[in-house]
Structures are given as C-alpha cells and as structure tokens.
Input
Amino acid sequence: MRLFLVLPCYNEQEVLPETAKRLKEKMNALTQSGTIAENSRVLFVNDGSSDKTRELISALHEEDALFQGLNLSRNRGHQNALLAGLMTVRSLCDVCISMDADLQDDINAIDGMLEQFRAGADIVYGVRSDRKKDSFFKRFTARRFYKTMQSMGAETVADHADFRLMSARALEALSTFGEVNLFLRGLVPLVGFRSEVVYYERGERFAGESKYPLGKMLHFATEGITSLSVRPIRTITKLGFLILFVAVAVAVYSLVRYFTGQTVPGWTTIVLSIWAIGGLIMISLGVIGEYIGKIYLETKHRPRYVIESYLKDEADEADLRDPAVGQ
Output
C-alpha cells in the first residue's frame, strides 16, 4: 500500500524542519512494520511562500527521497494548495492523508486512519475529541460555525478540519468536482463512499503564527456557506414575504385608524421603518451579490492553481496524469 502525506505550506520555515523530522520517524515506523510500501512519500505543497519554505523543501528532497515538493506559481490559498497536492498524487498512491504542516494534527492518528482504510473505508475524517485548549471565543465561534453550516443545509463533519484520509478512488471522484470556489470540508462528504471517523487531540502549534486570524476565519465561513448552500437566498425570500405580511397588517391598521378619525402623526415609526427596511434590503443585496460574484468567477473557468515545479521521483514521471494547470 503506497501512502502519500500531503501538507500545504505557506510561510512555514519555523516549523518545517521539525515537521519533516517527526513525519520521517512515523513513515519509517510504518514502513518497517509492513503497513505501507517503501516508496510511500511526503509531499509538501509550497503555496507561494515569501520566506525560506521553498528552499527548505528543496533541501529536504535532496537529502531524502521520502520528501517531495510541489511549488505553485503564486499564493492561491490553503484549499487550492491542498487540492493541488491531492490531484497530483491521486494517480501515484493507493491512499492519501492530508494534514497541516504546523504539527497540530496528531501524527499518531495516522495509524487509526490506515486501520479504517484496511477495514474498507474510502474516507476517514480526523475529528477533534475536545476543544479544551482553545479559548472561549475560539470554541464559541467554532461551534456556531458548524451549527450554522448544518442549518444552512451544508453537509460537514463537526470539529473536522482538513486532516483526513482518502483512497485513490475517492480522490478520482473528487477530481470530477469543478468548483472554483473551494470548500473541501463540504465537498469531500459529497463524494460519497464509506466513511469513518478517528478522534484525536489537537496539539499546540509547534512554531510560527496561525495563518487563520479572525478576518480569514469569517471569510472562510462565508465561502463554505455560499459554496454549498442556497438557503440564505431562500431565507431572504421568506423574510420578504414576512415583511409583506406585516406591511399589509400595518396598512389595514392605519386605514382603520384613518376612517375612525384616530390618526396621529407617526414620524418616529416611519423613520424606524425606513431604516429597518433599508438595512434589510442592503443585506439582501449583499447576500445575492455574493452568489452572483461566485457565478461570475465560475463562468470564467480560471484554473484553481498553476504548478511551477514538482520535486519528485523519476519513477513517478510516467504515472503522473495531473496537468500543470488545475482546472
């Protein structure tokens, strides 16, 4: 069984040497036990890093054939970088495991994932067993994110990021999804096939800074909801009918008071109504605009990533089917 580990990297020079060291120990242990084939590999995807990440990946590849490197032509974001790695190895591996390069994902959980794969699972999700190490704000926003996704009709796995195992046929199925606006946590469940869950305790970041501050987290949440669900637009429609019903009720009430001679100037009510309806209209236009923007990007058919170079084994050259441009 040939295993590929795929790790997107963006400015990870501080953590990459330790990550490579731990992954090498794990891969050697799995090879010696006969769990994986000797030609299993670790693929680092350099997502247009501006530090020495690219140089470190090249040095690791030159020192040990275990490590491979994929350099994108520019920064395309975590999800596109991850997809580039997955699509590159899909024709080379029997099974692939994606994880972050910051060592927060438990490397030892790989054993459990491979056991589930041997038992017949095509997809195995790494799910956090708890969030005790997170701040109150992080726990609260994370829970609200997954509940919001579920309420919007998006099929996601709670407390699961991008630490997952996928079989070769699951990767082939994923390659048929052509969305430019990527949210892999929602797309992978749509692939189908048998899936299982492995629980693990997420550790602290070994070094460096988080690549997902609050602003990016909010953008990521918006991407996930609007990429997988049209329920926000339907909610606006329902809200519009509700407002229409209230407007009719207010009109009837106003006419009754007018014909009974009980009209009183309602400047405050009018002003508040105008501001409330105006705000609702602006929000509605914003939500609709978000979907129109995504349609605009999808119709352009721009590539999701462009590969500049691939540091790989010569033996893999003949088997590589993925083009340099990810459509």
Notes: The chain has a mean pLDDT of 78. The beta strands are 3-9, 41-46, 67-72, 95-98, 123-128, 160-167, 195-200, 305-311, 325-326. The two ends are 28 Å apart (CA to CA).
